[in-house]
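The authors assume throughout that readers already know how a fold can be written as discrete tokens. Each protein is reduced to its one-letter sequence and a matching series of backbone shape codes. I therefore recommend that a typical entry be quoted early in the introduction. For illustration, here is how one protein appears when written out as sequence plus structure tokens:
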Amino acid sequence: MKDFREHFFLLYNKLKSNENFAFSRFSDGELRIMQNQELILADNYYKIGDKITAGFYYPEDKKHFNPIEHPYVHNKLMEAYKFKKHNYYVGLSCRCCVGEVDFKQMIDWRGSDDEFLTWSNLWVNGNYVLFRQYMIPEFSNHNIVYVLSEKANIAGLPFKLVKDFRVGDNCFVNEFNKHEEVAKWIEENNIKNHVFLFSASSLSNFMIYELFKKFDENTYIDIGTTFNIELGMKGIRGYLNGQNKKICIW
């Protein structure tokens, strides 16, 4: 049985020892897109499939996936999820967060429970304290490139960036081919042994997949909303305030 904290240190130790890898997080939003359900996060509601529920979302959190208008998003997400390569880690939505049925479906899509399958929640919930204690200081020892929102203020980050690439709203639809811009920069500058961080919704999955497939002499890490406070982003999740300390199970 896989262990939540053991997997955290598995990736941390790769980073610390300069062993290049990729970690792509397929959380509940990605799960719904992979199920081909319409997904909307709007001002005062969210919609999954035909179900609409009241909720509030800041502009940077808003998104819309329409399976009729955006089939290429679904297809690319499935392609990225099923891709297998040494040190390409895929984080899925665990059974304790989305339920047994959805968890098993994600295992089935993958084909098997292989060694490179892990938690999408690896940096958050009960592991967030470890992320702050171990991962954040370690980033200062690397050449960091960050793909993140155009609304983010990088002045508050606890480490320096070599370069940042910015994305706008609903970026997984509107900037679907963003990886091409980053790939061109990597190629033109012969970038190797850099650590690329991603906070770009489902676009992170596409970019990590495309970049690690071609440029595996760098590390690519989906870190989601872990730096929302430092970046001055309004969407503050419970784990950022220490309110969610759950140890996720496999």
